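User: Fold this, then the next.

Assistant: Folding the first:
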Amino acid sequence: MVIKQSLDQKLSELFSSFGYRHITLPVLGPTELFLRKSGGEMAAQIYDFADVSGNQICLRPEFTAPIMRHYLDHATEESLPVRWHYGGPVFRHNLRNSTAGENRGQFTQIGAELIGTDTVLADAELLILATRILQELDIRNCTIRIGDLAILNSVLDVANLSERARDFLVSQIPLLAGGNWEPDRLEDRARQLNLIEIDSNGSGLSLAIADLDDEQARQVLSGFLGWTSGESVTSASPYELDDPTLSEKRDIATEHWGNLGRRDPSNIVDRLLRKIRGGDQLTHFRQGIELISELISIRGSAKDTITRTEDFMRRVGADLSPVQRLTELVELLTSNTNRIISEDDLELDFGLARGLAYYNGIIFDVNHPSLSEPLGGGGRYDDLAKALGSEYNLPALGFAYQLESLVQLSPCDTVISEVDWGDRVLVATGNKKYFEDVIRKVNELYQTGVAAEAFLEVKSIDEVINYAKYRNSKEVVWIASEHESTIYQTGYA
C-alpha cells in the first residue's frame, strides 16, 4: 500500500511538471452519464443501483465522462486548453485484468485529460506523457499500439452508411479482427437490430414512401397491411390482383410480423415505418463490411502500415486527410531528433477498437509482454461533449493507466526526477512545421529539471505571452525556425 501511495504521488508530480492540474471527482454519479455513447461493453460492467429518490446512480467506472461533465458544468470560462490529471478507484464488473490479485472489480486509475485543442501536437503530447511515465518508472519492453477511428470513418464514408450502422460495424471490429465473426453472421445481427432495410432493392415499400412525410407513409402502409392481413386474394380489388409484388409483400409481412390480425394495426404501421426508414441498403452494408475487413487487415510497423493504408484509401476513394494527420503524428513521435518513442516499439493496428463509443480519432493501447490486458490506453473523443448535452463538439483527448499494474512492473526503488514546476517554461511556435522542435525543446528542458509546457496552437507571440501569464509561466521559448529560438520574459512574478 505504501509503495502504491508513493508511486501515485510521484506520478502526480510528473503530471504537474507538464502543466496538468489535479482534479478530484465524486465516486458516485448518475448512471446515464456513463451510458451516453459509452457502448454496450461499459453498460455491462457498471455497478448501478437506485438511490432513496429512485434515481439510477452507479459507482464510477472511468474518469473521462465525469471530467467532461465537470468542464461543461463548472469550467467553460477557463482559457483553453484545459489540462487535468486524476487518480482514484474505479469499479467494473468482471474485470479481466486482475493483475494485483485482489479487489476484483475495483482498481485504481491514474491519467490525464487535455480539453480544447484539436491539433496533432496535442495528440503527440498525450502520447509523450504516457511514454514518459513508463520511462520514469523504468518500465521497459512496452509496445504502443495505435489505431485511428477517423481513418475508419473515412473509409466507411465510401459506403454511405448511416451513423447507427457505422457505429455497429465499428463496435464489431474486435470480433472481425479476431476472426470470430463471419460477414453473414454480422449481417444477420444487423437485421435483428433493424440496421438493414427490409426492402433493400429499392423496388417495393421503400420506393413507394420515399417522397412522403410520415403521416402519408402511414396511410400507404395501412393499405399495404390490409392487403397482407390474411384476407383471401379473391376479396382483393382488381388493382391488388394485378399487383405483381403482392405475394412478395405478403411474404415480407409474414416474415417480420406473423399473423398481423393479432396486433394493433397502428403499432404495426409504426414499426414497419421505422424498419423501412431506419435501415441501410443491404448493398451499402455489405460494402461497409468489405471495406472495414480489408482495412483492419493492415497492421504492423508504422511507416509500412501508413504506406499501405494510404494506397488502400486512394484505391477506394476515401478522404486522405486522416491518414495524412496520422503520418504527421508518427513523424513527430519517432523522428531522429526527438527519439521519444522508438519506431520498433510503435505498431499501427486499425483493428484496435474501444468498448467506449465516444472515441473518434486516434486511440492507443500500451502493452507489456507480462500482462494479458493492456497496461493502459486512451484516445481522442471530440464528440463526447455534445453527447453530454453541449451545444457544440469540443476537441479533447486523454489516457489512463492501471496503477496496480504500474506498481507490479516498476522497480520498488524508482525515483522520479525532481522538477520545480513552479517555474514552468512555455514553449511555442508561430509555424506548424516547427512542432517537432517544440517537442524537442520541451524534452530538453524536462531532462535538465525544468518543467515545460508545449503551447499547442499556432499563434502570435503576443497571444502566447498572454497565455503564459495566465498559466503563471515566467518565460516563453519562441521557436522561430529550426535553428533559432528566442526567450521572452512574461513579467509574471
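Now the next one, as you asked:
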Amino acid sequence: MGKPTGFLEYERKTSETIPPKERIKNFQEFHIPLSEAEQRKQGARCMECGVPFCQSGMMIKGMTSGCPLHNLIPEWNDLVYHGNWRQAYNRLKKTSSFPEFTSRVCPALCEAACTCGLNGQPTSVKENEHAIIEKAYEEGWAAAKPPQIRTGKKIAIIGSGPSGLAAADQLNKRGHSVTVFEREDRVGGLLMYGIPNMKLEKWVIDRKIKVMEEEGVLFMTNTNIGKDYRAAKLLKDYDCVILACGASNPRDIKVPGREADGIYFAVDFLKANTKSLLNSNLTDGKNISAKGKHVIVIGGGDTGNDCVGTSIRHGCASVTQLEMMPKLPEQRTPDNSWPEWPRVLKTDYGQEEAIAVFGSDPRIYQTTVKEFKKDKDGKVCAVVTVKLEPKKDEKTGRMNMVPVAGSEKELPADLVLIAAGFLGSQKYVTDAFGVEVNARTNVATAPDSYKTSVDKVFVTGDMHRGQSLVVWAVREGREVAKEVDFSLMGYTNLT
C-alpha cells in the first residue's frame, strides 16, 4: 500500500510540539499538525509488506502487538497518499468508533508493530489517523447520521467512558434506543476527567457527544446508578443493561503517616483540576493546587506523568516521580524483538517539561515510600523512601521488588499524589446488580463473552478486563454491542 518506494524516499515525520517552557503556560494541546502535503508523504511510507502486523492486535508475551481494533491501516494510508480523504475516513470508521480520541491518547500500538519499523522508522499511523478524522469534521463527513429505522428495543448503559460510548454508538446505529447514565456532571468518563486537557481538549469530546445526541443517543448526567437510581428499575424499564463503569478503585499506599493531609489519589487531583479548569479557568479555588509545593508522585505510568505535567503548570517548587521498577533500556534487548511491544525507556511530555524547568529527569527508579511524615498541624511535610531490588520468591518462583536495608532517604513533600493504578470495579455498583466478580474485583463472565451472571446484564471495558488502554475500551465496547444485539435480535450485522 502507499508508494512502493515511499519508505525509502521519505523520512518519518510527526507533528511538531510547542517547546516545553511555552506549553506549560496553559492547558491546551501542544501538537502542531503536519501540512496536507507532508501528511500524504507519510501515507506514502506505508510499504506493501504483505503481512500488516500493524492491524493484528495480537498478544505476545502478555503485551498487545498491533491495533486491538484491527484498523485497516494500510488501506487508509494508501488513500491518504492518493489524496482520497473521504474514502480514507470511510475505511477508518469501519473499525474505529472514536479516532478523534485514539489519535490523541493512544500509545500507537500499531506503529510499534509496523513492518517499516523493523529496520527503520515506522509509518506515522497515529498522525494519519488524526489528519483523517479532523478532515472529516472540516468537510462535514462526520456529521450526524441518525438510523432510519428503530427496533423498539431499549438499552441502558452505565458509564460514559470510551467503552460505554462505543457500545452506545454501535447499538444506536443498529436502531436500538440507547440511554447512557453518567454519575458525573459531564459526559466522557475517563476521557473527560481522567485525561488532562493538554492531552485531550474537552471540546473534542463535546463535539462527538453532540453528534451522538443528534443521532438519538440520550445522555443522563448526575445520575449515580446504585445510589440515587435503583438497579431494579433499570432492569424493569430496559431490555438490556450494560455496565461500563471502569476500574475505578485506586490502589492505595498503606504505610505509616498515610492519614496526613496533603496526600491524594492521582485521579482525584486530575479530576479536580479539569473540573475547575472547565468551570472557571482555575479561579474557583476548587482544584488541588501544586503551586509553590514540593510534589511527590508515586507511580511511573501515564497517570503519574499526567500528574507531573499538571503540577508543573500549577507552578510547583519541585516534582519527583517514584517508580518501583528498574529503568528500562533505551533500545530493544535481544529478548524483546519486533513485533513485540518495545519495552524501552520512554520520556513522556511531563518528564520532558520537568527536565526543561528543573534541569533533571523527575523519575527515581526502584524506589517506593516507606513512611509519610507530617508536621504539627497534621500536614505531610516529607516522605521517607526506600530503594528496591529484584529478588526471587523461592515458593512461587516469581521475582518481587523488595526493600534494600539501610537505603532510606527523606525527601521534602507538601503534596503527595498516588498514581499506583486501579484494582477494579466499585462494590456498590456490582452489589446493586448482584453480578459475580472475580479475584481482581472485575465483573466475571465466561471466556470471550460479555454476559454477566445476571440475566439481561452485560459488562464491558475496564470493569470487565481491568485497567487498560482507551483503544481496548473502545474494542470491548464494540464487542459487547455485537453480543447485546445478537441477544435481542437473534442475529447481528455489527462489525
